[in-house]
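Provenance and format

Records in this collection were gathered into a single text stream. Each protein contributes a sequence line and a token line. The two records reproduced below are adjacent in the stream.
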Amino acid sequence: MEESFKNSTNSSRDVSCVCGPNQKVLLTLTDVITFLVGQPVIVKLLWITFTSTKTPDILNVNSAVFHNFQYLISIGHVIVLFALPSVHQDLLKFLFVYAQLGGPANLAFICMQRYVAVVHPTLYPLLNKYRIREACAVTVWLLSVPLAFASVFAGDTFPSATERMLKSFPFYVMVFMIGMTVRGTIRIMRTLKKSSPGNDKLHPAKKRAFKTIRATSIITMCFYVPATVFERFQFLGECVDGCIITPVCILLLSAASVVHPLFYLSTQGKLPCLKRGKKTT
């Protein structure tokens, strides 16, 4: 039976991890499938957004661009995994923290936008007036990219205490963003339920908000929460973290990056399979 990972001695670190064939296959399949499925979806989403006469949804466009870069990094990681295996762990760390922070942050800000629209509609014009959506979009990039770079160079650049803090910070930001999403979802659901007692149908705008919140809830509970739980098993060791926990978390985060734009297109009625289904019923 082949070992799933090997240990090798490094002068700067006591133990470094070299992933075995099983991990390489998992990582390669995750990266390639994510790119092949996600890239066409993102291209379609952006095309529909910019060719529509409606004002583009800034936060969803930002999310699409963010995920597009994630797909490109994934393909870059496949190349590095086989061409430069000695540095693939660094790119994997970058990809992990990038997706770990940016994915939940995008969902949280989208959820908060719906929260203001449904729970505090009189305040909704302020989002345009004070460019709050643009600020949220910039915040996603300022959180994810610098911290992703810091996670790669932390061990060689910063003292051990600072390194531990930098490694823990993305996890707590992720938990905070998930908490914001869950709290906003609960408030929105309650408000929508109160505004439509009995069997009264929801207003189309509120129905779209309900679908969006339902989608963000499913993505959060099925992908981001499990990734958060898995990450807490880092104490099992550097090799277990690098060759088992991180690939599994990458799988969950990559799946979330594909499912989110698919859900968005479905709420807009832009998925051909759904249109065919409606015509045949």
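Adjacent record:
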Amino acid sequence: MANPAAGSGNGKLSRLLDYSSTAWAFLVARRNRPFILGLVITDICNLACRHCRVANVHNASMTLEEVRGHLQRQYDRGVRYLYLEGGEPYLWRDGDRRLPDIVRLARRIGYYRVHVYTNGTVPLDESPDFTWVSIDGLGETFRTIRGIPVDHVLDHLRRFKGRGGIVYTVNTLNRGHTGEFLEFMQREFPGRRVMFYLHTPYYGKDELLLSRAQRRETIETLIAHKRAGLPVMNSKAGLRALASGNYFHPTNLWKVIDTTGEYPCCRAIGNPEVCAECGYATCAEIVLARNGRIGPVVGLLGMY
């Protein structure tokens, strides 16, 4: 059942009680169940990024009714936070329905926060609560990884007035440019911060994967950037966890659903090589926050 109308007193009280119950289950009772849903509404994408092999595999999109069914079922099971993913979620279509229609639907059902992951090649809508734009470098670095100039994405980011951050996935091609990128962001986009991921070998180890030494060096460099006041969103604890892999994963704290099925943690579940090399920084932040680490808790409050 959808939440009561937010405008009513009973609705507000119901939401407060629900929120308190969820916070208790996550932070205090530490329930081992999903709180977050990553919904892959389409695998259609307009890019062919060097590090991605999930785009345009099935050329499939969920219908709005399929989306509604997934959202309602997961909400009824206690999930309260939603990530809309792709492919490129801004390319999702069902008749005249577009991405903002899914955001509004999720809110009507009762989801607390709706995040969107996008490549930024389409003008950004301000209806999501938080928008993650993937930018893995500047100039030729970005073009080599993503196949297009970065200027178009930056223009869309300049026009965007909503809340959001940048995802920069570090690999062997761009690892030496993190300082330059952060200084550019601080100068050109004050207030926007950058969450650094590490390239994860979802499709087998490749030339983009950092060696263990490169991984440690990258993490220490990012911690130094953060200490210097550059806009690194990762907590220092989260970065150190990425360097060591010393945090509990895979985890049941979220699930991913696409047109092929449901997966705990990520769609590579059961692949020990992927888990060992996991660079999904938000995973580390959420797991550490749930275990009471202050830095990750503060960072997540900034996003949620």
